[in-house]
Amino acid sequence: MGIGAQPAQWEAALGTDYLDTQDADLLRRDYGLVELSFQKDNDAWPCFGVSLQVHRLTQDTESDVPAPLRDTYGKFAPTVRFEQLAAAIARLGYTVEPEPDAAGTSDDIRRHRVTESGVRIFVRTPEGPQQTDEVWSLSMSPAWWRNTG
Q1: Which residue(s) pair with 34 in the sheet?
Q2: How distant is the alpha carbon of residue 49 from its chain centre?
Q3: What is the pTM of this model?
Q4: SS3 sequence, 81-145?
Q5: Residue 126 confidence (pLDDT)
Q6: What's in the keyword line of the UniProt record (predicted)?
């Protein structure tokens, strides 16, 4: 499952508990933790973007994580620390690097990318001395990042 898959394929994998928002030839499917973007191409709707809205886990992992993912991976932690995610990615042999944001994310969000895949990791900066950097979201789309490498 991934870029290029049709909405029905995603539904077969993640279930029917989602919200669709369509605007002309664009469709966004929201499963809570997982958001998918599709663009109409003749009679098909290939997926062109996948995002994990990690920040939603702080609210309710039971309703925000699709049941097939809970069944496969078990309980999800309410937060993900950037340092832990970056270390796990490095153990797999990939590189995470800071990415300047010309588009201007907010002051409390930093952007990083996994060089080999183009995945972008959005990290919320700490608000106080006791807090650590928490992953806000991850996004993957060749179309979104084509011009930034």
Answers
A1: 52
A2: 9
A3: 0.87
A4: EHHHHHHHHHHCCCCEEECCCCCCCCCCEEEEEECCCCCEEEEECCCCCCCCCEEEEEEECHHHH
A5: 73
A6: Plasmid
